[in-house]
Amino acid sequence: MNSTKNNKPLEKAVVLLSGGLDSATLLAIAIAEGYECHTLAVDYGQRHNAELDAAGKISKALGAKQHRQVKIDLRAIGGSALTDDIPVPDADINSQDIPVTYVPARNSVLLSMALGYAEVAQANGIFIGVNAVDYSGYPDCRPAFIAAFEALAQVATKAGVAGQRFIVHTPLINLSKADIIRRGTELGINYGATVSCYQADVQGRACGRCDSCELRKQGFIAAGISDPTRYS
Amino acid sequence: MNSTKNNKPLEKAVVLLSGGLDSATLLAIAIAEGYECHTLAVDYGQRHNAELDAAGKISKALGAKQHRQVKIDLRAIGGSALTDDIPVPDADINSQDIPVTYVPARNSVLLSMALGYAEVAQANGIFIGVNAVDYSGYPDCRPAFIAAFEALAQVATKAGVAGQRFIVHTPLINLSKADIIRRGTELGINYGATVSCYQADVQGRACGRCDSCELRKQGFIAAGISDPTRYS
User: Fold this and answer.
1) Complex ipTM value
2) Which strand ranges, in their side-by-side order, compose the sheet holding A167-169?
3) Which of A225, B105, B157, B187: disulfide with A116, CB 3.0–4.6 Å?
4) Which residues on chain B are in Cβ contact (under 8 Å) with A71?
5) CB A15 within 8 A of CB A23
6) Model confidence over A118-150: pLDDT tens digits?
7) Which structural domains are found in chain B, ordered by start?
8) Comparing C-alpha atoms, which of A127, A231, A223 is closest to residue A177?
């Protein structure tokens, strides 16, 4: 699904950037593939803003063309430990259940926003850092979901109706956390600037205990790369 | 696609309610069909809030179970006269072009939000007031778009993966504006409380000149029903 720099040098893409490890790697990959990148950070009422601050800095550091941030208050809908007052659970990354940190329809909302931005920016690529390996049971991180969204994009937009083909790129989907860290390290990412923790403090320091911290920690160990994460 | 009161008396539905004429009629239809209705108004940075105020009042007046309002700032993405500083054009309802009042991916965003709310409220119905007759060329008001979204909903959610079937109900899709007004009048709606204008003033009074005003005005004339719209 990806294009090389030599084939299509001027293609534009919207890259969903959270400020975490995965999406920083995603942006580095999109840029390495030759896309003019328009990054989009969505503030969906998550508990911490350190991740959003990191997103803006990473976008600039990696050389994106433009960065935008959209606020959408998913707390008004509720149903998740990330947006409600339910305590974030400690790690249980071997569980087969869908975790309480699942935000209902989150990736549908994120991709819809990215699609709107893509249409305005005249981009035909959308990059999203979903991962089917470490996805902890989130239904909207699977290839079937991505395919359904691509089908929607074609009929949902003025550009799609006019014949433009939207492609949702998911270069991380089959990578382990260690693979992602190795790839990003090759591309020169400073992971100390990224924030993955579900409950980071205001300085962006990680709790070291939640699912996201646990996956990240194990990823650095498995990659054999020293972990630059700042813990509180 | 609709159920009757006698067949499924306790089904829940999320109803997207803008405060305009169409969605007020939509809610009245959903309630008449026996659904327990959870209304959702989305503030997507449109210029006027009179329509949102009307939504809350209409939800209560028609007997919805719950009303929620979510703010999402689509102005950060731009591309539309409804959210940017482009002047709203006067009516040209016979044009075949997609109008500048088209908001990129708007109905994808709205339905994604409704899907998240439906999952939290354990509703399997979503009602949206799209219309393929007077839709002024919006791609995301067509049956093909609705079908693609239903397909997405099945794979996007925990409930869908667990086997729940989400249905997107579009009872207005093939109705003319006059048909909608006749149906709503039968159901007892006070259309004086609804706001359809793209640039209503703070008291909810309509401009009388935009596409939306023109369609509404002609609808009352065609229905042979006296127009209770408050004009500025």
Assistant:
1) 0.85
2) A66-71, A36-43, A12-16, A125-127, A167-169
3) B105
4) 71-73, 76
5) yes
6) 988 899 999 999 988 765 578 898 999 999 999
7) 12-223 (3.40.50.620)
8) A223
pLDDT tens digits for range B36-66 = 999 999 887 765 678 888 999 999 999 999 9
**A97 touching B, CB under 8 A?**
no
DSSP secondary structure string for all residues of B108-157: HHHHHHHHHHHHHHT--EEE----SSS-TT-GGGSHHHHHHHHHHHHHHS
Please, which pLDDT band fits residue B112 given cuts at 50, 70 and 90? very high
Q: Which of A228, A219, A225, A224 is nearest to A91 (CA)?
A: A219
Tokens of A119: 């249409």
Burial class of A107 by CB neighbour count within 10 A (0 to 12, 13 to 18, 19+) = buried
Which residue in A71, A157, A161 is closest to B105 by CB distance? A157
Tokens representing residue A123 in the block: 């981009």
pTM of the model: 0.86
Chain B residues with CB under 8 Å of A139 CB are 155-158, 160-161
Q: In chain A, which ranges are E strands? A: 12-16, 36-43, 66-71, 125-127, 167-169
Size of interface A-B (CB pairs under 8 A): 152
How far A83 CA lies from chain B's nearest CA (Å)? Answer: 13
